[in-house]
Amino acid sequence: MKKTLLAAAVVAATPAMAQTDNPQKDLLPSLETIVVVSSRQPEAMRQVATSVAVMDEVQIKARGFTALADVLRSMPSVSVTNTGGMGKPTSIRVRGESGYRTMVRVDGVDVTDPTGTQASAQLQHIMSADVGRVELLRGPQGLMYGADAGGVLNISTISASGDPQVKLAAEGGSFDSQRYNASVGGGSDVLDYFLGASYAETDGFNSHTDTELEQDNDGYENTTLHGRVGWNVTDALRLEAVVRDTEATNEFDQCWGAVQTNDCIGDFEQTNARVSAAYTTERFSNELAYSNTDVARKNYAAGTVSYDTEGEIEKLEWLGSAKFNEVHTLAYGLEQREDTVLELSRDQWGAYAEYQGHYGEGLYVTAGVRHDDSDDFGDFDTYRVSGAYVLDVTGGSLKFKTSYGTGFRAPSLFEIDYNRQQNNPDLAPLEPEESQGWDAGVEFYAHSGLHLELVVFDQSIEREIEWDGGYVQSSGESTSEGVELIVDVPVADWLVVNANYTYTDAQTAEGAVRVRQPENMANLGLTFIPVSDLQASVNLRTADGARSRTDKAIGDYQVLDANIRYALSPALTVYLRGENITDEDYQEVPYYRTAGAAGYAGVEVTF
Fold first, then answer.
1. What is the pLDDT of residue 23?
2. How many angstroms separate the CA atoms of 363 and 366, rounded?
3. Dihedral angle computed from the Cα positions of residues 71, 100, 314 and 48, in that order, rounded to the nearest 10 degrees
4. DSSP assignment of 447-513
5. Residues 464, 436 contacting (CB under 8 angstroms)
6. Which residues are 458's β-sheet partners?
7. Which is it for strands 218-232 and 237-252: parallel, antiparallel or unpaired?
8. Is 70 exceeded by the pLDDT of residue 16?
9. What is the distance of C-alpha 353 from the center of its chain?
């Protein structure tokens, strides 16, 4: 199978006589690309001084993976660890920071699971179906979100306009996997809507390497429903509602009931909802939004309930901006948040303001402050300043950028409650972690489409919370510093190269290497478009230098994936995808397997 898939990718890569007018436009960054993740306001990339990576629907489909986490692996500074296949616990690390330090939002809704040990998003349950765009803000620059050292991952579902369009898709492949999704969307100047439903399941493989317990395949099943509707009441007033529901069942290994067993099942359900009203004029914009995230989780060990919990996050947000003139803009916001897990709860208020200035032809600066008031931990102030300068040069534009930000993470309700229940005098009351970080970089955008980017980053966390028979805090600073190099090259009309390399030196306060964070990570992606209806993508990713919790080396690896898409007609597309086509034997988490060579085929219908 792996040789067949690789051969197919090579054949598809051979350039044909026909060429598209501009096949690279969706595969190359641009200074005029609009992003919202940096300041929660639409901005062209030329204005953004923070480090932001963008992946749109074309790029997501080119990779083809069922789970969104697998798509994210090709982004700069992103490390993903998974414990045994689709649906198993998955963590995303950005610039060396643990996954729970990165906020994840879907269509404006914070999808954090408050019941988790460190309260993070359950990324393994977010499928790639119907995802239209991903924006990643790297570093402690989440002034508008209250996020800290990891960053912000902003996910948007497919936007629709015009006549109603129906999309159907089906896929099957290795591990008896199958995936189906259906969506309908459309809109006018007054009303727009999108409804999507997706289903994915796999028999999986035996995830844990322990051979003393029973051996079995660890499957997974996921059903996700998503709806979004917007009503432009007037030219200035827009109302919008978003609802998302995910139900998943995961089989896994290594749990405890009466005895230790590999007969483990986890049921997960998460419902997200958001309603908003936005009023926008030429100079002012204001949005009032209410969102709710509700999570229920129940685990079974050999058929007996071993874990049962539920939690909720409620947010009321006011977001706005005032454009005083072409030079000066003020962005501002107010947030009230309540987290609840069973009988535990926490209330927190936050307010921020950021000055945004545009001076001369190419200088952009920001300076902002945020104040948070938690009923558990009192007041905290965080800051962000940034600057970007765009200079026109022969053949393109040079962009110089730098930013500095601070943040904090309050201990999760679980961490606090666990220590409280131990009644152990050695476990001191927990305090919030505080983070700070800066980065500086230079980018070159050529008229030809060539994009080069070099970024240096350095960030640290004080009082990092760690596990040591309970939750304790380090006395020093944990650090993460490194370099990001990004290269996007339109080699020819039929070939685009997208590559990135990240060096990360991430250390604990005691000077040990951060757990499971590779020192070196790289992606080399080739996209071939010999004719407008055919696209073949090949991506090689590699990582080395990761260490386990016991400071043992986790093996280096190189994984090759390929995806071929062919449009038989405007309404019908077929594709073939190969994952780990060289059958690399590797681990991301010690004692947990990863999938070997796998192949998948699918069809998409649009009408």
1. 57
2. 10
3. -60
4. TTS-EEEEEEEEEEEES-EEESSSEEE-SSEEEEEEEEEEEEEEEETTEEEEEEEEEEEEE-TTSPB
5. no
6. 438, 481
7. antiparallel
8. no
9. 25
Backbone angles phi, psi at 247, to 5 degrees: -120, 130
- Distances 446 to 48, 395, 454, 488, 496 between C-alpha atoms, Å: 18, 6, 15, 10, 14
**DSSP SS3 for 253:** coil
Question: Virtual CA dihedral for 95, 100, 105, 111, nearest 10 degrees?
Answer: 160
β-bridge pairing 131-138 and 109-110:
unpaired
**Token pair 């629907």 is at which residue?**
57
Please state, in angstroms and rounded to a whole number, the distance separating the CA atoms of residues 432 and 412: 9
Query: Which tokens go with 41?
Result: 């306001």
Q: Under DSSP, is residue 383 helix (H, G, I), strand (E, B) or coil?
A: strand
∠529-530-531 over CA atoms, to 5°?
90
Q: Which residue has the tokens 């007033």?
A: 237
Q: Are 426 and 398 in contact (CB under 8 A)?
A: no
Nearest by Cα to 588 from 74, 63, 205, 85: 85
Do the Cβ atoms of 124 and 69 come closer than 8 Å? yes
Name 465's Cβ contacts closer than 8 Å, sequence gap at least 6. Answer: 118, 411, 415, 430, 433, 471, 472, 473
Beta strands 495-507; 520-531: pairing state: antiparallel
Question: Would you give the DSSP letter of residue 414?
Answer: H
Least confident of 99-108, 194-203, 417-426, 447-456: 417-426
- Write the secondary structure of 277-297 as one string of H (helix), E (strand) and C (coil): EEEECCCEEEEEEEEEEEEEE
d(CA 405, CA 436): 6
pLDDT above 50 for 460: yes
Chain-centroid distance of CA 158 in Å reads 16
Closest CA to 546 of 525, 516, 524: 516
CA angle 5, 9, 10 (to 5 degrees): 120
* The model's pTM: 0.92
Cβ atoms of residues 500 and 543 within 8 Å: no
> For the segment 73-119, what is each residue's pLDDT rounded down to a tens digit?
999 999 999 999 999 999 999 999 988 999 999 999 999 999 999 99
Cα–Cα distance, 354 to 48 (Å, whole number): 13
Could you tell me which residues are beta bridge partners of residue 138?
Answer: 51, 151
**Rounded average pLDDT over 369-392:** 93
Which amino acid, one-letter code, is at 255? C
Band (pLDDT 50/70/90 cuts) for residue 18 is: very low
Span between the terminal Cα atoms of the chain, in Å: 33
CB 404 within 8 A of CB 384: yes
> Residue 17 — very low, low, confident or very high, per pLDDT cuts 50/70/90?
very low
- Structure confidence at residue 148 (pLDDT): 67
Q: Does residue 283 surpass a pLDDT of 70?
A: yes
- C-beta atoms surrounding 511 within 10 Å: 9
Domain annotation for the chain: domains and CATH numbers: 2-606 (2.40.170.20)
* Band of residue 22 on the pLDDT scale cut at 50, 70, 90: low
Pairing of strands 471-473, 465-467: antiparallel
What is the DSSP track for 68-126?
Answer: HHHHHTTSTTEEEEESSSTTS-EEEEETTB-GGGEEEEETTEE-B-TTSSS--B-GGG-
